[in-house]
Amino acid sequence: MTDSKHTRIAIYDLDRTITSLPTWTPYLLFAGWRLGPARLLLLPTVSLGALARALGAIDRDQLKELMHSMLLGRAVPAKRLAAVSDAFADWIVGHHLRDGALAQIAVDRAEGRRIVIATAAHRFYAEPIARRLGVADLLATLAQRGPDGQILSRLDGLNCYGVAKHAMISRWFSQTGLDRQTTHIRFYSDHASDQPTFEWVDEPVAVNPHAPLRRLATERGWQIVDWRR
What we know:
Layout: E1 7-12, H1 24-35, H2 43-54, H3 60-71, E2 75-76, H4 78-95, H5 99-110, E3 114-122, H6 123-132, E4 137-141, E5 143-145, E6 151-155, H7 163-176, E7 183-189, H8 195-200, E8 203-207, H9 211-220, E9 223-225
Parallel strand pairs: 1-3, 1-7, 3-4, 7-8, 8-9
Antiparallel strand pairs: 2-6, 5-6
């Protein structure tokens, strides 16, 4: 329970928490087809990158940059990518949102909570999804910009994942002038990589958890919910 002196916030992960599928690979295929279908011929190379990641030869951020470069290009005009991202957001919102997530967002809003999405998804396509959900506060992975505003394949800062996501949330608190001591935070995610944030908030909620998160949530006594039905 919180008292009237507390600011109330609900932070949501995006992929497989609000959405029913991970968004990065579907976005690459969706956008790659529209930006240049021939780029999809590079999928075998992308698969080799995924293998290199599995073997520890490259890290998660480097794989993300490689996939972006191969399937979208190293520099894409911002306006062109925005049009594709809007179409992708329409597809996701129309077909791949979890009803349970939408219902919980409505509950949190009714409680007066400020809704935040914190996701490893790139901001250039997560933002139109958040906008369609009526969410103004978005923390996401950023891409570097070229001299003419092009979206580049290199990351601008860290991938908003795991420890980096927690750091970005903490920085957002400082930037917005929120006081952690007088803020009650409810946090929803499907993945154990978000353990740093789960342990930082007041009310952690494991959503459709995979086995490692289910074990962790059970050990810590965190709430577990299933939005897949």
